[in-house]
Amino acid sequence: MKILSIESSCDETAAAVVEDGREVLSSVIASQVEEHKLYGGVVPEIASRRHAESIVGVVSEALSKADTTLDDIDAIAVTHAPGLIGALLVGVNFAKGLSLSTKKPLVPVHHLRSHIAANYISHKELKPPFLCLVVSGGHSHIVMVESYTKMRIIGRTRDDAAGEAFDKAARTMGIPYPGGIMLDKIAENGNDDAFKLPRPKVDDAPYDFSFSGLKTAVINIIHNMEQKGESVPVEDVCASFRKAVVSCLTENFIKAAKDLGVKTLVTAGGVSANSLLRHKLEKACKENDFELYMPQLSLCGDNAAMVGSQGYYEYLSGNIAELDLNAVATLPIDYRE
């Protein structure tokens, strides 16, 4: 079964053709990073306009690279939630138009479920159930994936997401957008014990995260040094902050796995590309005899291949949308159709 998939939840316009949820026949991404870098982050209005300009060409290229026409496509999958509402609307409305004109089924796909599905492409043997750490710019969750379309939230952030904390700390240090990626690289040359940073815990919720206080602590360190006229050791600050965030993510994830008796662990989302997080999880899983799956680096960020993978399983579960499908800015990963 071939699915044409579309992703436009933030600042990447992407399309892909995926077969049977596991084989990527094509994947095309038009990135807006260089433009948004001028503003230090994603500007929603600009993102929406660029999606509208790029989507026809991106979808056409995906079909061409897959040596496929719309006649060969069995269904059209599109990210409908969560994300920037204007950006989502571009993809959703384009997919609805294709569905109407081709009479192909329209499959709504949740963005975070797609990130998890990236692992089905990277690891064709992987099947639910498993425990997944979903970490991105806007989300930090521990999710029990009971089936391809049934998920249960075990833990979540109470304030900032891990990726958001990385980006804000990076911005304070003058690191250009995308800050989290650059911070990870700079941290490689720093001393991660140079600054003692807190490891926030949430009372009565051992699997939940809180990164706001940690973010504020590192920002205060930087501001205090600057006010005293001291030079900020950026590499050491980056390394210390990265270590603190990764420790919180790893400890809660491993604790949840132990408490729930789950042996198969999975990571997903843009922050799953973080080099220290990958190293720490590999080490922790080896020590605890857990099986760990992580998406290949090219599938950690936003892309349409992962939408096509999850779209396949949503289609099999009967999650087919009508033409009144709308974009939704916020929607929990464990929603029920």
| Mean pLDDT over all positions | 95
CATH-scheme architecture of the largest domain: 2-Layer Sandwich
Termini separation (Å)? Answer: 22 Å
Low-confidence stretches: none
Quick one: how many beta strands? 10
Instruction: Please write the CATH class name of the largest domain.
Output: Alpha Beta
For the largest beta-sheet, the strand count, sense and barrel status come to: 5 strands, mixed
**Largest sheet, order of strands side by side?**
3-2-1-4-5
Computed structural class: alpha/beta
CATH topology of the largest domain: Nucleotidyltransferase, domain 5
SS strand fraction: 15-25%
Kindly describe this structure.
With 337 residues, this protein is an alpha/beta fold. The protein has 2 domains: 132 residues, Nucleotidyltransferase, domain 5 (2-Layer Sandwich), CATH 3.30.420.40; 173 residues, ATPase, nucleotide binding domain (Nucleotidyltransferase, domain 5, 2-Layer Sandwich), CATH 3.30.420. Helices cover 43% and strands 18% of the residues. It contains 10 helices and 10 strands. The strands form 2 sheets. Strands 3-2-1-4-5 form a 5-stranded mixed beta sheet, sandwiched between helices. Strand 1 and strand 2 form a beta hairpin. It is globular and about 65 Å long.
